Amino acid sequence: MGKNIKRIGVLTSGGDAPGMNAALRAVVRACKYYQIESIGIRQGYEGLINNDMIELGPRSVKNIINQGGTILKTARSTEFRTPEGRKKAYEHLQKNNLDALVVIGGDGSFTGANIFHKEYNVPFIGIPGTIDNDIFGTDFTIGYDTALNTVVEAVDKLRDTATSHDRVFFVEVMGRDAGFIALNSGIASGAQDILIPEQRDSVEDLCDSLERSEESGKKSSIVIIAEGEQLGGVYEIAKQVKARHQEYDIRVTVLGHIQRGGSPTCHDRVLASRLGIAAVEGLLEGKTNLMAGIRSNKIVFTPIDEAIIKHNEIDTELIKVANILAI
Ligand SMILES: Nc1ncnc2c1ncn2[C@@H]1O[C@H](COP(=O)(O)OP(=O)(O)O)[C@@H](O)[C@H]1O
Ligand SMILES: O=P(O)(O)OC[C@H]1O[C@](O)(COP(=O)(O)O)[C@@H](O)[C@@H]1O
Ligand SMILES: [Mg+2]
Question: What's the complex ipTM?
């Protein structure tokens, strides 16, 4: 076993994501399997700063594989962004004899862990947990598949009412700076147009698309807009379309945090289970400053700097698919 790791601290940080519990369960059970101890840190980095931790064993994580959210709770900790906050965190880490950390979170959480490592040399491995799927080094982040399915289910319902009233629906989905949720849910829910931050869009193009839809005989349309869209917010975009087409009966729906909850899909549970075990095994092999991810269905470790700085490109084939099917 590498680096004398006997006690691992595990935390969930940043925005919660369905499947974080499944990842926690896998970390705790892998620790037991490899005969080391696992300690749960509550509320992300806040728990390190406030010494809020709990010993975990295989039975402490029973009945959570199917639960959304995170039983450890999560936080966006402003104090951890300060050297003083991280000093307190390190003191409590030492007090609890933690030899390494598993950080389940997004790019922000990894940035924090990286800075902490540079200052105090604490080994850590990150597990990508965010619905946004915006992390380089993995084909999928934990929670993304569940969020996609939630969006598709919701848009299917909107389609029923859109069709009944011959309306145009503008639906805003999450994705702070990324269009993965929008693009994939848009294809799966049969959207007429999909607006994502990675692409240059214009209200003119959007109107063209809606006009084409009318000309081809469609009586109602759904437009999916990522919250990070550069053109502006969904209400503003809807207003601009209405100004050009007063005859359109437009409605706006912001799906919001409903996308962050719910029981994780099979895909997210399996992904989380694999990554949780990989993170523990990585630490025991002496690995650090890496993110465990999955690419082409194989576990891969990516340097954390790369995971933070690089970005997954939007697949242009998917954009083509969306365009062809909107005919
Ligand atoms: N530059 C930073 N320095 C120290 N800690 C950071 C930094 N960026 C993020 N963090 C920590 O990670 C937490 C989670 O980051 P956030 O961006 O909110 O979510 P996510 O990890 O989901 O991207 C922050 O609340 C903060 O405690
Ligand atoms: O939960 P909050 O603080 O309202 O933040 C909302 C943001 O969190 C997300 O749901 C997930 O982002 P992170 O996983 O990076 O935290 C984004 O899609 C959204 O922009
Ligand atoms: Mg983030």
Answer: 0.97
Would you state the pLDDT for residue 204?
A: 97
40 is in an annotated binding site: no
Last residue of a domain, one of 220, 237, 260: 260
Average pLDDT over residues 317-322: 97
For ligand 3, the distance from its centroid to the CA atom of residue 182, given in whole angstroms, is 16
Number of domains comprising the chain? 2
Q: Which domain holds residue 163?
A: 145-260
Is 177 noted as a catalytic residue in this protein?
no
Looking at residue 311, its pLDDT comes to 87
H-state helical runs in 34-166: 45-49, 83-95, 107-120, 144-165
User: Which mutation among 50, 81, 133 tests ligand 1's pocket best, with the greatest number of atoms within 8 A of CB?
Assistant: 81
Per-residue model confidence as pLDDT tens digits over 85-136: 999 999 999 999 999 999 999 999 999 999 999 999 999 999 999 999 999 9
**Ligand 1 proximity of 112 Cβ (cutoff 6 Å):** yes
